[in-house]
Amino acid sequence: MPALIEAPASTPAHEITPLASLDAYDAVLNDDYAFVAYKEADRGSGAWRVRIAARHMTGVVLEPEAMRLQARAAGAQGKPFFTWGAGIDPSPSDPRLVQYRVHVEGGKPARVEIALQLRKADGTADAPQSVSFPWPA
Question: Are 52 and 36 in contact (CB under 8 A)?
Fold first, then answer.
């Protein structure tokens, strides 16, 4: 079965390195959510970022400097991770959770996690799922 979403191919301008992917079924929608994370490096400047593309959700871009600053602040507050971008937080009427989490160690980004909890057919929470990968250096 082909992947629901894939990292783009490298181009003359960008080197693409796939990092992780996750597919999950939501029974209420009777459809799949899908995510792919990849590192995108500019061939000319060497600047890079992590992108997470998503099916049924807004993707995110994780720029190294923004992640460094946010990780420093989260570390100073004793938080093990911070979330980035638009996700879904559970509510009394909808138990879905979709979060892009950047885990922090020593005030620096250590790994990225895509955390999900979708729904069973009766609308209750299904088992949590996640995938993570080390923060690229």
Answer: yes
* CB of 123 closer than 8 Å to CB of 134: no
Quote the CA–CA distance of 42 and 17 in Å, as a whole number: 12
Task: Give me the residue label for tokens 């992590």.
Answer: 50
Span 29-49, average pLDDT: 96
* Cα 127 to Cα 9, 27, 120, 122, distances in angstroms: 32, 12, 9, 14
Burial of 13 (0-12, 13-18, 19+ CB in 10 A): exposed
> Nearest CA to 35 among 79, 65, 3?
3
Q: Give the C-alpha distances (Å, rounded to integers) separating 81 from 8, 45, 84, 95.
A: 28, 29, 10, 21
Give the Cα separation of 101 and 110 in Å (integer).
11
Residue 135 dihedral angles phi and psi, to the nearest 5°: -65, 125
Tell which residue, 93, 24, 99, has the closest CA to residue 55: 24
pTM of this prediction exceeds 0.90: yes
The tokens describing 43, both together, are 């061939």
61-83 pLDDT, tens digit per residue, is 999 999 999 999 999 999 999 99
